[in-house]
Design brief:
This protein is about 40% helix and about 25% strand.
Length: about 180
């Protein structure tokens, strides 16, 4: 189950990576009364039938999960969005990737807590694979963009503790700059 908006983000980005995406774009916009998220990838995408089935909690793509045939990520996202008075849209096409957009009304009592975006983004940036992850963060005050390739070009691999510490400090500084 998703405890925070950042848990939802992590699940969706992981889905993109599992769908063989070489590029995952994550847009996170917060403002007065709203949180808007967009996750877009260039992975294998889904045909109309698979897209329709993807919101069924008792469906999971064959071979995706050993020993189980359920896929709760998208159904839980849609349930959370609906319960909190938000909205969601999923579009996909074979060979063209998938885009998921959702928004929450932050005044709704059922909106989940936001979570820790810098740490969530760092975990996603440090995950294995050869994909590019681009995080675009926008608030009414400011914005920043972090690319996985820029972090690794500057710091080296994100598997060593020293590089992870530096990357974490950088991610947190970007978020702090939005508050000023």
């Amino acid at each position: 189950m998703h405890a925070t908006v950042c848990d939802i983000i992590a699940d969706l980005v992981q889905n993109s990576v599992e769908a063989a995406a070489s590029l995952v774009e994550l847009d996170v916009q917060t403002g007065p009364g709203t949180v808007k998220i967009r996750v877009a990838d260039n992975g294998k995408g889904m045909d109309e039938e698979t897209l329709a089935r993807s919101t069924d909690p008792f469906y999971s793509e064959a071979g995706k999960h050993d020993h189980r045939r359920v896929g709760l990520g998208l159904p839980l996202l849609l349930q959370t969005v609906e319960a909190s008075g938000g909205k969601a849209d999923i579009s996909s096409a074979p060979g063209a990737g998938t885009t998921i957009e959702f928004a929450f009304d932050t005044s709704n009592i059922d909106m989940p807590p936001f979570g820790d975006l810098p740490d969530t983004a760092l975990v996603l940036m440090a995950s294995r694979g050869h994909h590019e992850l681009i995080l675009r963060r926008v608030t009414p005050n400011d914005a920043y963009t972090v690319r996985r390739s820029d972090l690794t070009a500057t710091l080296g691999d994100l598997e060593t503790s020293g590089n992870l510490i530096l990357a974490r400090q950088y991610m947190r500084s970007q978020e702090q700059n939005l508050i000023k």
